[in-house]
């Protein structure tokens, strides 16, 4: 096991603690916008399923602000996707770094033309391609794109990343001397302890009341008595800078017990594949239920993230004596503005409180595979699935819903994180061959639903998910519905720049969407959530046209809609 962890550490932790912030070139990268830099999010901020991997730079709540190359280099990659970055440009620089600009609306004319030609040639709006160094060289400050709100963006902004070109490691841009004044130290909103005799998924956080005295946070009771001989701590905290009133994630935290460093993290860099360990680095339940980010000052057994210091200690605090123990927590930002929390802890057996574990729960171990079977389901988790021992409740309930063709399989719930995809096999009710072709597997996790086609193995359907919740088989025999937005069959487009349709499915989601004109020529529609938008260009000249839209859902039900319109 030790060897296993060591290998992972080598794989994941490229240079975290040796990569001293001073080694990065200072001022090499300029602000990619021509307005004073204000952030909406910093590097390492908590998100569900990932740390924020760059800076979100504010664009005055507007789109189409000019975006400039942060330094000399060449456009090395272009990505167009419905979610994630939306429209994105990667620029590779001669000094070993690559910058990324996301949620863009459009690129500078030469690159935009290259992209659109390729999209029409491939008949695909989605793109992800690399470019050689000689094709689109750029100089520092050159106009490269218009900012926007494309992809998984909730409002206009520029997402900006700096990566190590060789390793692909995402680096903290604020360690490169970005033009941002910051004299404000991190702020503490809450301090909590966890009873570590139990799994993190059994206990609830116990809040410690804190006050700020002479610039130092301390507990309202000088010596806090806790009812467990082994505990861990969690902090709710945020950072600020002088450019705006926005609040951000905290760069660095260190925990000292009796003046000995027990635990530390520094958000210098992440590799994308490890970013999901954010779910192990905070109180996940508090995050998804209350939107409160309590960050652990301890390492759960299944957390293999590299940003944590390679100390022998996992940050759990042993209080198994009569002594009072001195606790100091130091928080700091990239500019070394520092906040201290200082207090004392003592174990008091009389305060001990026991937690009960549901009698029907399966106890899933960390770092080993777990297989669970019920009458109509078989679920297998691999050894990286869980961050801590987990009492998992799995049971079945019947449903009268007419489209449901299996029991509902309850696999824990949305408040428990799972790291790797797990496999689920669900047994279907008796179905004809035709019906079987229209069955999908649905996972409901909290308010979100994921629908997958799955693979039949006899009367069992196999699929996989990366969230816990309720799984069932549904029969979907209804195709998607296409609705024109602000126009109708027979409309004339005069000054409108775009043509938009909404396309949704009742059970699953849209698996494919194609639009063609009367001569069969393909028309490119950009995608964002349920909306598909064509921007008028040379591919639709003035005159009368017939537009044919074909949309298919995950189950394979297709709809073909035809509309007539005139373009003036
Ligand atoms: Zn972002």
UniProtKB/TrEMBL annotation:
Residues 51-107, 138-173 form the M23ase beta-sheet core domain. Keywords: Signal. Residues 1-20 form the signal peptide. It holds the Pfam family Peptidase_M23. SUPFAM superfamilies: Duplicated hybrid motif. GO terms for molecular function: metalloendopeptidase activity. Transmembrane segments: none annotated. PANTHER family: MUREIN HYDROLASE ACTIVATOR ENVC, PEPTIDASE-RELATED. This is Peptidase family M23. It comes from Parafilimonas terrae.
